[in-house]
Design brief:
Number of strands: 7
Mean pLDDT: 88
Distance between the termini: 72 Å
Strand order of the largest sheet: 1-2-3-4-5-7-6
Number of domains: 1
Helix content: 25-40%
CATH superfamily: Gcn5-related N-acetyltransferase (GNAT)
CATH topology: Aminopeptidase
Shape: globular
Structural class: alpha+beta
Oligomer: single chain
Order of helices and strands: EHHHEEEHEHEEH
Amino acid sequence: MQKIEIIEYSDQYKDCFKALNYAWISKYFWVEPTDEYVLCNPVEAILEKGGYIFFARQNDTIVGTCALMKVEPLVYELGKMAVEESCRGLGIGTMLMKTVIAKAKKMKLRKLVLYSNTRLHAAINMYIRFGFYLVPKTDFHNHRANMKMELKLMERGLRRSFKPKEQCILHVWE
């Protein structure tokens, strides 16, 4: 197997971001206007808003991609994840996922969210392997998303609110 490396966005790969995502979306669903905007304008739609785009590169060929899109200051969405169909099963999705989660932890994000569809069994299984869990989908994301998952990375204030057991003192008031 040839070496696969994960790299950050470069304008030279803009068309790869679009093509990889169009391929998987078109295979299972249809490309929606919000997809069209994000895929044709990744710098404006993702990067300039504080997000990140990653690529999996095998030699000089881009074989996978995903994005971290800012939702609010400490919450980002994992989205636009796609792997070239002929390269699936090589662990590229796992490599992208590890990169995204490492970046999120380095940024000290509170959580990652993602939207998916119950038809995408392999993707959902990968998300579960990485600790994502199903949460109620109370917002509209796009027509194909019929489920929402999240991964908690840090609970705000949790470290300050608990002390080791031996430091706790029970006060009894009479």
